[in-house]
Amino acid sequence: MPKMPDFKTVEEEAEFWEKHSVSDYWDELNRSRRNWTRNLNQKSKPGPTLKR
Q1: Sign of the alpha-carbon torsion through 38, 43, 45, 47
Q2: Terminus-to-terminus CA distance in the chain, angstroms?
Q3: How remote is the C-alpha of 12 from its chain's centroid?
Q4: Which of 2, 15, 40, 41 is the most buried (most CB within 10 A)?
Q5: Torsion angle, CA of 20/22/23/29, rounded to 10 degrees?
Q6: How confident is the model at residue 3 (pLDDT cuts 50, 70, 90)?
Q7: What is the Cα–Cα distance from 4 to 28, expressed in whole angstroms?
Q8: pLDDT confidence bin for 23, thresholds 50/70/90
């Protein structure tokens, strides 16, 4: 499998993924351990803010 490059900008990363398949780099991706399901009977809360 090819090694995923280090990206300097979000634009550079977006251009890369437009031309490549994530399945070629699956083993290098970090897996999320977060459970993304929620109880629909509860009011939704704002999600976390992403920081770069």
Answers
A1: positive
A2: 28
A3: 15
A4: 15
A5: 140
A6: confident
A7: 7
A8: confident
Q: Tokens standing for 28?
A: 């290098």
| Other residues' Cβ atoms within 10 Å of the Cβ of residue 25 | 16
Burial environment of residue 13 by CB neighbours within 10 A (0 to 12, 13 to 18, 19 or more): middle
22, amino acid identity? V
Structure tokens at 45: 């809360």
**More confident of the two residues 52 and 11:** 11
The tokens for 52 are 């770069």
Structure tokens at 3: 């090694």
